[in-house]
Input
Amino acid sequence: MSQNIRPSRELNKASMGIKPGMPLEVGGGSLEDVRRAVQMLLDIEAIKQVKHAYFRCIDTHNVAELAELIHKDVDVQLVGGTYEWKLKGRDEYLGAIDKAFHKRAIGHHNGHHAEIQILSPQEATGIWYLADNMWVLDFEFFTTGTALYWDRYVKEDGRWQIRSTRYERIYEINQKLSALPPLAVHYLGSHGSER
Output
């Protein structure tokens, strides 16, 4: 058993602060009801695209595009078995990503099973199931696991952004590598930060 097992809160909608959103229904069936329902579906799809782009941008160290997805006043708390990131504001968050996704790192982050709640035309929440792998070659170290993300999104100037993002691990496995992986391609090796 790991020496770093951390007690955590029960991960459910109540503990995450996720409230029921607007119902996904057409309502009375008027043209305005249909228009509102279609807009909600478009907003849900736009939010999914924001989060999918988020994972792509962190793993490719695309800080410029990531900045467009993150609200200037973002609030971040990421809790793992051996770490906790508490960050305020886009600049602080992007600085942390810049340092973590460097030339001697490999990241693989996938978010699945989106549960998007539209709270209003300008606010939404989302829960995502994360599966990730992270290699830090400098330290011959590998981390793998899963987590639940819960986000708050805001729509400003017609564009959805991540206003708050949190995750807590379901499980995390950390291990020292006996040898570096035999990489045929290493994208961050060319495009990651220097640290």
Notes: The chain has a mean pLDDT of 94. The longest strand covers residues 159-176. Helices lie at 13-16, 31-59, 63-69, 90-100, 187-191. The first helix runs from residue 13 to 16.
